[in-house]
Amino acid sequence: MERFIDEEMVYQLWLDYFSLRDLSTKIRYIADNYPDTRSLDVDFRDIFQVNGELAEALLDRPEMVIRVGEAAINSLLEPDQKVGINLRASNLFRNERIRIRDLRAENLSKFLSLEGIVRKVTEVRPKLLVGVFTCTSCGFKQEMDQDPFHYTEPLECTKDDGGCGKRAGSTTFKFVITESLFIDSQKIEIQEFPEGLRGGDQPQRIAIILEDDLCGEVSPGDRISLTGSLKAKQRKEGQTKATVFDIYLHGNCIDSNDQVYDDMDLTEEDINQAKMMAKDPQIFNKIIGSISPSIFGLRHIKESLALQLFGGVSKEYPDGSKGRGDIHLLLVGDPGTAKSQLLTYMSKLAPRGIFTSGKSASAAGLTAAVVKDDFGEGRYTLEAGVMVLADMGLACIDEMDKMTESDRSAMHEAMEQQTVSIAKAGIQSTLQSRCSVLGAANPKQGRFRIGQPKHEQINLPPPLRSRFDLIFTITDEPHVNEDRKLAKAVLEQHWIGELKMSEKTGDTRLRSMEETGDPILDRAKPVFDSDVLRKYVAFAKRECYPVLSDEARDEIIDFYVNLRAENASFGGPGGGSIALTARQLEALVRMAEASARIKLSPTVSRQDAGVAIDLMRFSLRDVAMTESGTYDIDGVLGGGFKSQKDKMYEIVKIIKEYQTRDGKMARKDLITITAEMNIEEHELDGYLKKLQDEGAIFEPRSGEYSVL
Question: What's the CA angle centered on 40, arms 39 and 41, to 5 degrees?
């Protein structure tokens, strides 16, 4: 039979613990430095080791045990040192850590640990603990403890304590704010980690009340673990009190507020398995084979997705500036080319992946919002969006071309500076959004038009386009041999799915194929199970920080310099187009680092640099290759290739020079002159339309042009 522990016993147990651990000096130091330091942190596991009875009492009756513990702390201080030092217990046993969705009635009033992503944060405001009220009839002052949620005034001026005895109806009570006791208070909301969800589960949330020095310590998007006591608040339906209660956690201690992959538990077995996987010379190919094997082909895109999954090394330079290590990818493709399927698969595969669609995402939903709702009890609340919640993970954004211009512009800062700045309703805050972005979009007219440059058909503004490290176009063009392979792969997937469902009727064909090791099944299954790969990625990002070798640096420098030099010489006396900018140079470094990280290599080799260069060439061939075979990065950045812009400039110059006195030039004369410049009529029509769209020229009458 368990022994009942009363407050006197708890008080003595705390004194014994403080004495055994010689904490009296630390307590006096906290009192001397109050209010800069206001809390005594104790380790729950240490308490359990010293006195299991006290630890059990803390788990079962946390409010009483902590209140008595704080009284014991106060007893160790000198009379002139008496201050309100908080007692905070951290580092609960793992079996005391409960998922938000597993909280039940039996957990009420118990001490437990929760973890999750901070979704909402209110402002820090003073909360009334003890109110002092003056009776307006006799001037008598009395104190009154306050309910956690409701402001309470005295019902009468108590006669026994020296008051007049009048009730609230006969007299009024004036609240004395200067003599009342306040404490800082903040309300936050956390939700479950997305990587812990399966299927169609919705992440569940819970409100947390933080007080005193815990306030202001967390921001939306932070991943935290905290301890506290679970409490309940009665719901109201109009004026009627309901029998159903809402739960919230009264926070006692924030155990951790780190941004690394520590939320993913890796056992010694997982770590050993990761090290064994890294020794496989085919590890890169096997990881590529584990990315959406049901989607046929797209080898280069899957290579890029593998690099994005691992990412480069985030850096902090001596001058304090930072360089991102996250890789951003954009897929622009015809309908039915499996873009959405790739994004959905990657959001589930990444250790921290979130999927959203541009159709249903606003600027506030992508970055952060300031809202005034019931959660903040009338106060403004800072709520995190997708790119903040995906901090240190992967944000998959589908249908980017369907977003409005204002919504897309909100992503600029989040993608390059990897922060989200908010300045609304008196709230000024900067949130972290250190995530990789995997975007997907359709071409301008729904499908790529053959003969028209691909970069002109990407329906995204140049500033946003330039922030992607690699841009891939996926076209759906008829090729007999490729179409046959694709159809065979798709139908094999459907056939295997049919066999799996037919097992319910007793069909054993799929089981027989598994027993004989049919190669069709190998093509349908990922090489590594998603859980194994997720743990491998988490281990690599936590433990591996590769450094560029001299050979890798030389390889990247040679590629960058030579490609720019080729374009410069190709352009002749007037100068060529710009093949690459420093942005693409940094992208090459990030991809080379990711390639080394896949192998858990501490050094970026020449081979890793070669992987990055091959992918960059493939991407540039899609969106930045001119008709003459050179690269022009202006195709990615928008505004057309330099050669096209030069021709457009010449056309404007010709119209300006040859227009008649009334300010017009005939189309037939323009065709004759531009033909000498090797500009064909259909090409000229395209340039004229662009110049009219840009407002450089106009057509006062059909077949006549003037310069504005």
Answer: 110
